[in-house]
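Hello, quick one for you while I still have it in my head. Could you read through the record and tell me how the tokens relate to the sequence? No rush at all, and the record is pasted right below.
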Amino acid sequence: MGGRFAVLTLLAALGFAQTAQAEDFSLTHSHSRQEDARADGSVTFPDTGGAEFSVSVTDRSEDGWCAQVWVSSNVAIPAHDDFRACGVTVQKTYALSLPGGARCNVGFVDIQIGRIDPSNGNAIELGPLRRIANPCPPLPTPTPAPPPPPPTRIDARVDHNWTAFRRWTRNEQLAVSDIPEGAAVELRCRGKGCPPKRRTVAVQGGKADAHRVLRGRHLRVGDVLELRITRADMIGKVARFTIRRSKSPLFRRLCLPIGAKTPTHC
């Protein structure tokens, strides 16, 4: 190829994301130990997808051959895939855009320098090829939201007093204090001496008197009484009393997780 020199320069378009980075290249083709074609440029892969470049082509010898650069990629090039200049020290500049539409859709761009003889059936002499791969940095990982704080437990105080007999037990005191605002108090009982249904105990000023529900009741041996202090966003407190023969009831403190129906160990 008589001294035809091609320069392919790939430049980022001004409107692309600032995070896009250009990579430079330089390619030469020699004939009879003399450089007769050259390609210098850069390729840019915007974060929005596609690729941007421009090309300059120079020919240094008037021998009928033209300097040429071929461009290919993993995506189809919509317009043309070669850039040419013919003449003695002739330089031309071209631009080419590869379509975007999706981040990192262009995986690489191949650039090859060479020469072509239009007067001889477009005979081709190919020179070096350079592949520029898209670094395609990963998307930033969003910082996860901190986990919500664990729910707090209701720590209301339960005061109780009983009079126990051989066959039954009578409640003398069952009071709740330090009840958090918005909490409810409920009395449940299973057994022959229990009140007929669950009872909601009124809360006033952070206090509740559950003894009113049990006044005069003879709780039988084996009856199980539960006093539940609950609030929707807190771990509830359950005071469970199991009636025993001739002894004060067996007392257990349990917890009621948020949304649960059955008390568990704390």
Summary: Residues 6-133 form a domain with the Immunoglobulin-like fold (CATH 2.60.40).
